[in-house]
Amino acid sequence: MKASTARGVAWSIGVLSIAFMLAGLVFMFVDRHAVLPDVSDSWTFSSVFDVVVNIAVPVIGLVIAARRRENPLGWLLLIAGLGLGLVNFSRAYSLYALVAHPGSLPAGRAFAWLSNWMWTIPISLLPFLFLLFPTGRLPAPKWRPVAWFCGAVLVLLTATALVLATTNWSRPFAQETSSGSSAAASAATVAFLIVAFALPVTFVLSFVALLRRFAHARGDERLQLKWFVTAAAIVAVTFIVTFFTNTVGGQVLFDLALVFLYLAIGIAILKYRLYEIDVLINRAVVYGGLAAFITAVYVLLVAVIGAFVGASEGLALVATAIVAVAFQPVRARAQGIANRLVYGKRATPYEVLSEFSERVAETYSVEEVLPRMVRILAEGTGALRTEVWLRVGSELRPAASWPEDGTSGSPIPITGDALPAMASASRVAAATSVAQVRHQGVLLGALTVIKPPQEPLAPAEEKLLADLASQAGLVLRNVALLADLRASRQRLVKAQDEERRRLERNLHDGAQQQLVALSVKQRLVGGLVHTDPDKAVSMIAELQEETAAALDTLRDLARGIYPQILADQGLPAALEAQIRKTPVPVELRRDSIGRHPQEIEAAVYFCCLEGLQNISKYANASKAVVWLRVDEPWLTFMVEDDGAGFDPARTKLGTGLQGMSDRLEALGGALEIRSQPGQGTTITGRVPANP
Angle at the Cα of 273 (from 272 to 277), degrees rounded to 5? Predict the structure, then answer.
């Protein structure tokens, strides 16, 4: 059945049931002074109260069926409500047509016959409410025999009552079967009494099933059942008492118990968001308030004031003007009351998402956007505490919390790209719910909501958390980019400072010392030229060798800054020159990559050198391979070895690998590291071939 069709059927049954009950009340009021049979429903407090209480049955059924058509509870309550409405109307109609005003209306006996057997249907359906609430399914398959037993009681009780009603067609208000009845009627009476005594058993068994459901329930379902179980116990006890005593007082107590039961269902629906009918209730309150306002204005002006000054078209126009002017303020007030009823002191989900979207559209610093996010989330869920966690490297770190009490959780390690178990952190051990924040499939962080242990997130709040997390993806992405930018800038400054210190140290300890020694030796040679020419000639030869060594040292330093061979002959030749100096056998495999901008070649060259240096220091490898190729629009390199390997998820990047990543990202490229313990390491990098 389509959703629109289901809503139409539910509304039709619900409205028809209520109309039958109200029509029955009208007949009861009209016959209030008539002398009616003892078994009839006269205009008394207990009878009227019973009808008023029964109106709640189709109302609740309509609400559930219109929202959750797949849940049989809504349709069960609608059937029960229609049965109650037909019984009340048929009984009142037949009393009017047969007793109070005989012959005034047609089909009096037919309606009396209908009321004499149809009452068994709603009362026999009540145990099914205990069995199926709130999910619409049995607590477990083992309770199917109980459901079959309740169904058998329903069928047999209705069938025997139908036979008895047919037997008493001519005497519909008699308390016993007429004399001279057939053997079938007598047998039906006996069968009816036997089945009727089985009805209290169905109440007891269904209540036991409800207790078992409550004992095994967790979270929202347990909270939804808490009041319902208590009310069901009272209903079962009062029904059994009323069944065996058949007194007016017992009937009133049973009706009061039903009121408690309907209130328990209302608490489950409103407070604990059962069936997620927040929007339906919200609109009903708003439209009901507007209808009450318009009615009150017209009654006050046209009826009350008109009674004193005389009814006129002017009063009607004044009433219309007042309604037109005050409609929008009254509607806003009614909307506020409805929101307060449904959402309490919290913001509505629409308000939360709307405010968050406005905040995202505005310009805020990183220090402001995350605290605003957790505050908005706390207002929407009524949580004790909300936190936003930001992924930093291989950890989730708390970035903001509400309320701002200065406390935060400890960083949580991440394995791969999966969200870790947040409950492992002490501050989120009682978290009601955690929502991961992703952008383009990449885990960027998480949102946690902490509520009291006995008040978990309702389905509507869980959906709000998921929607907010999906919108927060871009925000956390921007925050992460800004954080990475700051960190990379700091690393670049630090790397530049370290490089300056390294050059200074190498110049001081290498070339400078050699040049100082050459200067001293030159002065010695100058003194020996006239005193010991042979010694001077020998020292001049040594000076030539040491000058060549100093020149090599300076060339090596220059090579570390930007090697001349890279500028003259290109990337493959520069790498081959360095590969010949490495202690580990290295093979260079390359395509015809051609020449590229100086900064591109320099980035690939120094990244490959850093990779080879790491292999020499840490990998304990027997061989290595360097790949160079062009995959338009990228220039790609790969350095792989067969060494010890490591776990990238558990090992923090060192300064060398982090520097490689920063160098490539600064040019619009990226670095990827694949490694496993005992299976070597592969470092792959890429940069735009022609930026």
Answer: 155
